[in-house]
Write a structure and sequence with these properties.
Layout (H helix, E strand, L loop, with lengths): L5 H6 L5 E6 L14 H6 E6 L5 H10 L7 E12 L5 E5 L4 H10 L2 E8 L8 E5 L10 E2 L7 E2 L3 H9 L12 H6 L1
Parallel strand pairs: 1-3, 1-5, 2-3
Antiparallel strand pairs: 3-4, 5-6, 5-7, 6-8
Helix pairs in contact: 3-4
Length: about 180
């Protein structure tokens, strides 16, 4: 195996590794219909991870290192858990605690597809939640290119992630500002 530098690794073309989580029936799998033919060719795996045993899932995760140039999309059901203090958290439904701990560290993007009430008097709409958010949905944007809320189109999301766009400027939010959102 050839050893390469960090700069060489960063210069390599790599696909997006993503987890899309959301409640049953929100349209996670149906959003695959928004992929272009070119995106379909470069998407190596679309894996519904609920139902996979922990050993199988770890095998899939290990294969990601050999598919650097491919886009890999995992789909999971999102569950709401309420603890003893009545605090609600959202977690992807995964087999085995090890998988649940490892997958978020391995993928580049964690997207929650959820029904969002925008407070405009219209019924809730489907949306991708892509970065830290007031609802505490799982989200991570390693690219820095995504808005907190994106349209529920996987094709457009991949274009934004793989396109030439710049990272958004980093801004800090004080706890007081966060409480106002």
């Amino acid at each position: 195996m050839k050893i390469i530098t960090a700069d060489q690794r960063l210069a390599e073309k790599s696909g997006v590794k993503m987890l899309i989580a959301g409640p049953s029936g929100v349209g996670k799998t149906s959003t695959l219909r928004t992929l272009t033919p070119e995106q379909l060719v470069s998407t190596l795996v679309v894996c519904a991870i609920y139902g996979l045993h922990s050993r199988s899932m770890i095998g899939w995760l290990n294969q990601l290192q050999h598919a650097r140039e491919r886009t890999v999309v995992f789909v999971a059901v999102l569950e709401r858990h309420v603890d003893d203090l009545n605090v609600a958290t959202w977690q992807p439904q995964l087999e085995g605690s090890k998988t649940g701990r490892e997958l978020p560290a391995i993928v580049d993007e964690i997207i929650t597809m959820q029904w969002i009430n925008f407070g405009d008097g219209k019924p809730p709409a489907r949306a991708f939640v892509c970065s830290p958010n007031p609802w505490s949905f799982p989200a991570k944007d390693r690219s820095g290119k995504l808005e907190q809320i994106e349209a529920p189109s996987l094709g457009r999301l991949l274009e934004k992630l793989t396109g030439p766009g710049q990272r958004k400027p980093f801004t800090t939010v004080s706890p007081e500002q966060h409480a106002q959102t």
